[in-house]
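User: Hi! I'm working on a homework problem where we have to compare a predicted structure to a textbook description. Could you give me the structure for the chain below?
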Amino acid sequence: MASEIRDTLLEPFIAATRTALAEMAGTEMVVQAVYRQTTPVEMGDIAAAVRLTSASEGLLLFIFPKGTAKALAGRILVGSAVQVDENLVRDCVGEIANVVAGQAKALLAGGLHRLAFAMPPVVATVNELRPQSSQDCLVIALRCDAGEFAMELFLNL
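Assistant: Happy to help. Predicted C-alpha cells:
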C-alpha cells in the first residue's frame, strides 16, 4: 500500500479511533496490520457503517466480534444502572463509529481527502453493509485489551 494513502487517509482514522476509545472506554488500541484486500474476510459479528462522500461514494465499516463489542460497551456504560444487553451493545458500536467519523472528519479537513459522513447504521450481519462494487477495500486490523476488531474503508482510490 502506498505510504501516501496510509499517511493522508488512514492515519486520521487510526488517530481518531485511538482517541475515541481512550476517551469513551478507557482503553488503548494498537494497529496489528494495514492492508488492501479484494475478497471480504469475516472478522466479526457486529458492524457499524459510516457512509462517506467525497469525490465519490465510499463506506467505512467498524467490525467487532461480539465479545469485543460487549466489553467495550460495558466500559462505555460503566457506572450506569442499566444491564448491557444486545441493543445497548449495538448502540455503543454505533456511537464509537459516529465519534470516530466526527474526529476523522476534523483531522481530514485540511488535507487531500475531505469527506462528509452520514449517521451509522449498526447490524449483526456484516455482509448486509459491505458494498457490492469494485471499490478498493483498505483494512486496518486493530487490537485493544477488550479484544480485536477492524475497520474496512471502501473507496475508489
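For your comparison, note the following. The two ends are 11 Å apart (CA to CA). The chain has one domain: 3-155. Good luck with the assignment!
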